[in-house]
Amino acid sequence: MTSADDEKARRIAAIRSCDRVLSHGKPPTMRERLARLAGRDGLDGPVDMYGDGIVAELEHRVAGLLGTEEAVWFPTGTMAQQVALRCWAGRTGNPVVALHPLAHPEMHERGALSALSGLRTVHPTTARRIPDADEVRGMDEPFGTLMLELPLRDAGFVLPTWDELTAVVEAARERDAVVHFDGARLWECPPHFGHPLDEIAGLADSVYVSFYKSLGGVSGAALAGPADFAAEARTWRHRYGGLVFQQWPAVLAALDGLDHELPRLPEYVAHAKGVAAALRDALAAGAGWVRVHPEVPHTHQFQVWLAESPDVLNEATVRQAEETKTALFGRWAPAEVPGVAMTEVTVGASALEWDPATVGDAVADFLRLVAAA
């Protein structure tokens, strides 16, 4: 194993040994995942073959939740969005996609849009937020599709207001463009917008959702939209190698997430606001420069920035888990600002027992270990 493998194994073992975990929860073993899925009803039915059976059941359910004519299962979100943007480019006759430079295709897909589909990207804004209506209207060249990532993860899981979202969609329509939502984490957006999932999705021409980022699934995604769009998406899914023989374990996990995690997301979003405030106050009292972004989280996820080396913070994080059986943070990485590290906090079921006093005590232990390191 490499040193990175050793570090990861140590971190996972330390978190799994904890009595309390704030962010993300304890990483489950394969046996634990299988045991959970084995408790579901309906497991005596036949397995799926090339997208029928339980896969079609999940597609139907997602279409109902999002208020679209159809939804199409994909093994990965990257493939789903490649297909969506390729389909819209063909239909609009314009290969230009307007999106944020921090959006997933620009940050995490190795230039796949241009390499595989011949698409080109332009950026309405470089600000760390969703582009606004004036920026979309002011684009100096035509574009066929406006892609909006909701929430914009690498900017801090940030969302526009409902009025800002509807305005930017209308601006795209004025430019004769279609709108695609990268909704990998769309599931947790209704509390912020004050509108249900189907009304949010209804603003766009197509929507992608993930089954593991918010719902705790194994893998997989869905692409939702009109029936003719879904039919074309299925064609390109096959061409991209996404028509897998059997996918029932991942689909079972997705259905389990829709059953058990989706109803709890509003509770997580509400609790994240108190956790973020408690972290900000406790860290500011003893850590010097600190930033919690957004100060009031838009979803159940947010960023924490500290003026310290990521190596120091990662060692303190693991040592805290090993020595106190409390895991406060996940992994730290270098931020865009030199000398600053950033970590993402996800408030889920394991965080609901954390009140401000619990957060404050854990922060004090963490800062003590940072100083020692």
From TrEMBL:
Keyword Metal-binding (UniProt): no
Report the GO molecular function annotations.
Answer: L-allo-threonine aldolase activity
State the coiled-coil residue ranges.
none
Name assigned to this protein: L-threonine aldolase
Which GO terms fall under biological process for this protein? glycine biosynthetic process; L-threonine catabolic process
Gene Ontology CC: cytosol
The alphabetized UniProt keywords are:
Pyridoxal phosphate
Supply the source organism for this entry.
Actinacidiphila glaucinigra
Q: List, for all copies, the residue spans of the domain called Aromatic amino acid beta-eliminating lyase/threonine aldolase.
A: 51-281
* Gene3D superfamilies membership: Aspartate Aminotransferase, domain 1, Type I PLP-dependent aspartate aminotransferase-like (Major domain)
The UniProt family comment states:
Belongs to the threonine aldolase family.
Cofactor dependence is on:
pyridoxal 5'-phosphate
Supply the source organism's classification: Bacteria, Bacillati, Actinomycetota, Actinomycetes, Kitasatosporales
